[in-house]
UniProtKB/TrEMBL annotation:
Keyword Lyase: yes
UniProt gene name: deoC
Superkingdom: Bacteria
CDD domains for the chain: DeoC (cd00959)
Protein name (Swiss-Prot/TrEMBL): Deoxyribose-phosphate aldolase
Length: 232
């Protein structure tokens, strides 16, 4: 059972809801270590990175209380279930505490619901005991498809549904978060990600039902500093 999150009134209340995210293709070791240091300093929930960086990040975060999060099937979701399963197993082996997977969006749009459910279930099986978030890429779906994706995620054993990769045609919206929360009730968490760059935006998404915020500008969110150009 997921309990609603009160709208944060202070940076200290918002920080534990943030997945500090660095998923750009040219991320360097120095940048990854900086994100880890920032996450530890501000007590963010996790640092979310591509699979190749999980071992480094898990080592840098050891003892800080900050979790390591890896994406899987990112950013398109159009890889085979066995590929996602292997990618997940490798991330867990390297120290991932949480997995953010992208669904097979085309299969959902084609109404191949058993295939979508099986895809999520394959990743679930590869990360027992870990938090699984399912990215449904809301900007590519109509409302009924969003509801279906949420229901399939719940059926396959996910812990969260997540709005966006931040790499498609749109990011998190208040309307989508509210729709997702209405669909999953209090059974799953809802992660809002993609384009969340300000304190006010984060507050609005949490008020709509988000229980986690994914952002590359986590420090800006809690300090009020301008988000970096190109942040997601």
């Amino acid at each position: 059972m997921i309990h609603p999150v009160a709208t944060p009134r202070t940076p200290a209340e918002l920080a534990p809801l943030i997945d500090h995210t660095l998923l750009k293709a040219d991320a360097t070791e120095a940048e990854l270590r900086r994100y880890c240091a920032e996450a530890a300093e501000h007590h963010f929930c996790s640092v979310c990175v591509n699979p190749a960086h999980v071992a480094l990040v898990a080592g840098a975060l050891r003892g800080t209380g900050v979790k390591t999060c890896s994406v899987v099937g990112f950013p398109l979701g159009a890889t085979l279930p066995e590929t996602k399963k292997a990618e997940t197993a490798s991330a867990v082996r390297d120290g991932a505490d949480e997995i953010d997977m992208v669904i097979n969006i085309g299969a959902l749009r084609d109404n191949k619901l058993d295939a979508v459910r099986a895809d999520i279930a394959a990743v679930r099986a590869a990360c027992p005991g870990k938090v699984l978030k399912v990215i449904i890429e809301t900007c590519l779906l109509d409302d009924e498809q969003k509801r279906t994706a949420c229901r399939l995620s719940a059926e396959a054993g996910a812990d969260f549904v997540k709005t966006s990769t931040g790499f498609s045609t749109g990011g998190a919206t208040v309307a989508d978060v509210a729709l997702m929360r209405q669909t999953v009730g209090q059974a799953l968490g809802v992660k809002a990600s993609g384009g969340v760059r300000t304190w006010d935006a984060a507050q609005a998404l949490i008020a709509a039902g988000a229980t986690r915020i994914g952002a590359s500008s986590g420090v800006a969110l809690i300090t009020g500093a301008p988000a970096a150009s190109g942040s997601y």
